[in-house]
Amino acid sequence: MKKVILAMTMALCLIFSVTSCREQTEKEKVMEEMEDAGADVKKNVDGDETKIKMETENKEVKIKEEDGETKIKVKTENDDN
Fold this sequence. Notes:
This protein is of the alpha+beta class. Helix content is 37%, strand content 37%. It has one domain.
């Protein structure tokens, strides 16, 4: 019985350690940052193409996902583009 409890405890520790250190992708980081800033989020899905546009007063982010590729464009108020 002692071995079963010890094995269960070790398995739980392993599960928690693996799931807690999951890294965020760049897309997830940018989306979380913009949502925390109170950005307006618009999402457009067309077939296998997804476009996400997020805007705040001084920052605009566009994310385009197509065929497994993700492109992120960030434009701030200070950019001359």
